[in-house]
Task: inverse folding
C-alpha cells in the first residue's frame, strides 16, 4: 500500500514528536550520568550542588553527536527528529543558567536561540520538518516554563 502525501507528513510529525520525547529522556539520562561522574571524580559531597563542568561536558558531547548526525546521509525526518534533542538541551541549559532571573530574560534568551535556528534553517532552505521540530521544542519549552514543571 502506497501512502498519500498527507499520510507521510502525518507520520513524519508523529516520528518527530515521539522520537524527540525519547531523545529528550536519553539526553537527561546522559546528563545525569556525566554530572554524577564529574561529582565522583571531583569528590564533591552529595549535599553540594553539582559542578557546572558536568553540564558543559554533556552539552559538548551532545553537540558533537549532533554534528555527526547532521553531516550523515540520514533522511530529513530522522535529522529533524534529532534536532529536537540539542535544541531542548540548550533551552534547558539556558533555564538552569538563568535560574533566579526574571522570566522575561529566560524567554528572551530562549527566543533568540529559536530565532537563530529558524534563520539558519531558512538560509539553508531545509524542509518543513526542521521548522516543525524547532517549533515543537519551542512550544514544549514554553509549556514547561508556564506550568512550572521541574526538570
Result:
Amino acid at each position: 500500500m502506497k501512502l498519500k502525501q498527507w499520510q507521510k507528513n502525518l507520520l513524519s510529525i508523529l516520528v518527530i514528536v515521539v522520537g524527540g520525547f525519547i531523545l529528550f529522556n536519553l539526553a537527561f539520562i546522559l546528563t545525569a550520568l556525566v554530572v554524577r561522574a564529574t561529582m565522583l571524580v571531583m569528590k564533591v559531597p552529595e549535599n553540594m550542588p553539582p559542578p557546572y563542568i558536568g553540564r558543559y561536558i554533556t552539552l559538548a558531547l551532545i553537540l558533537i553527536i549532533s554534528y555527526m548526525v547532521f553531516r550523515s546521509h540520514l533522511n530529513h525526518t530522522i535529522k529533524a527528529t534529532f534536532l529536537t534533542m540539542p535544541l531542548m538541551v540548550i533551552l534547558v541549559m539556558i533555564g538552569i543558567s538563568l535560574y533566579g532571573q526574571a522570566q522575561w530574560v529566560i524567554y528572551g534568551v530562549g527566543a533568540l536561540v529559536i530565532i537563530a535556528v529558524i534563520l539558519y534553517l531558512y538560509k539553508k532552505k531545509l524542509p518543513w520538518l526542521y521548522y516543525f521540530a524547532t517549533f515543537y521544542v519551542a512550544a514544549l519549552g514554553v509549556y514547561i516554563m508556564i506550568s512550572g514543571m521541574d526538570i
